[in-house]
DNA sequence: TTTTACAATATGTACATACATTTGCACAAC
DNA sequence: GTTGTGCAAATGTATGTACATATTGTAAAA
């Protein structure tokens, strides 16, 4: 295993270490239950201070990936790993898997100025245009989801891409942008006029609303996605262990 | 405000500071959006080192209670109630963390015969009674969730337990039943008569519906839980990596 | 054989310190 | 006015050090 940390890299040491450990854990270098070398040793091995190492470990502990116990050492909590590192399919891939034939009812791409919040998330100025994609998708019997996506200008999308291809495949293959972390917020709302029209329901009818923040491997923001799902047409499933 | 930290207390300084900050935030000493004193000042004020202070702040940042930005300072982010999929806190614990005072509007316990589906999940016969708990909980300004829970008879609950205690703590400490895996399904619905009445909303208003299947360490079923959340009062957050 | 006591070990707590980086703001130059 | 430029203020990164505390394993005592 390559315990290589670049002291001259602009990316902080503790981040490098965090990534390294995460990789080792996921790639089963340190499988379930395995304890890693003690802090003093590991710090020496990586040629960093114990403080910095602890900083990295702390984050993984917060995430539940590692468990620390005095005298017993720091060990991998593999149960959480499996449930986290799996299922990451684009919408169309997921639907295909479930045997549902997806129809695009609407697909609209424009360039817009981000609002305060979006600019903040993308870490750009509000006068820098971003690509906005709206789409309404569903089955033969009608639409059931209305998506709005914003893409970070860094990616280099022109707006002329073939958005009928699975999105994350497109980003990965043509723009070497790999979606690797997503933070989602799910809630229920009453549909407003716009949503109701898009989903062909009455306004004030319930919708499942999903906000999705997508990051690349360096935890840099790449997409902000809003999804409005017709009630009863979509169930979100989560599996978690402790 | 009492900025008092006990340097002789056996409870670690950074924990004391964390608690103090949490309290100040919750009691609106530092309301939403307010920035707190800069780290160097605050450390001096509390008579602790900046390192220790940062340790405390870090935890609150991780929890999402605080947001740090260079030059702009550290500010309070008292957003809507949320639930993290991983770190497994009971409802009351989670609310306590957020500084929300939970009120029980209704708490009702009975023994019932399980329906087909439940019997199937619990792997028992339909003539074996199970404990059913219903509760309506919320804040001072009204209820925002209606829970229905069914517990596996194996656990040994009598129905006379103090259900005001955090549930998973009760199961663990008094019945050595450890909830360790949960599978959840989240969707949006329109409230029916019953739900509307419990949540004090109009029927057909949107609710977030969460089904939860809980298992113990041996992956044996222990609880089946239904939760109806008033729209906009609850946001479910999920973080996933690939 | 079981219990007790102790030492070794790994993490936990806490401090002081130094320099880097980002960014908000003010003021000067255009 | 707008643009640039630089200072200052805040967090971010990183190290070295010292001692505390919990727990495991082992050896001695009962």
Q: In brief, what are we looking at here?
A:
Chain A is an alpha+beta fold and 242 residues long.
Tell me what you see in this structure.
2 copies of one chain form a homodimer. The first copy, chain A, is 30% helix and 33% strand. Chain A is an alpha+beta fold. Chain A has 2 domains: 13-85, Orthogonal Bundle (Arc Repressor Mutant, subunit A), CATH 1.10.10; 91-230, Chorismate lyase. Chain A has a 6-stranded antiparallel sheet with strand order 4-5-6-9-8-7. In chain A, strands 1-3-2 form a 3-stranded antiparallel sheet. Chain A is elongated and about 60 Å long. The interface between A and B is large, with 39 and 36 residues. The structure holds a DNA duplex (30 and 30 nucleotides).
Quaternary organisation: homodimer
In which order are the strands of the major sheet of chain A placed? 4-5-6-9-8-7
Order of helices and strands of chain A: HEHHEEHHEHEEHEHEEE
CATH class of the largest domain in chain A: Alpha Beta
* Name given to the CATH architecture of the largest domain in chain A: 3-Layer(aba) Sandwich
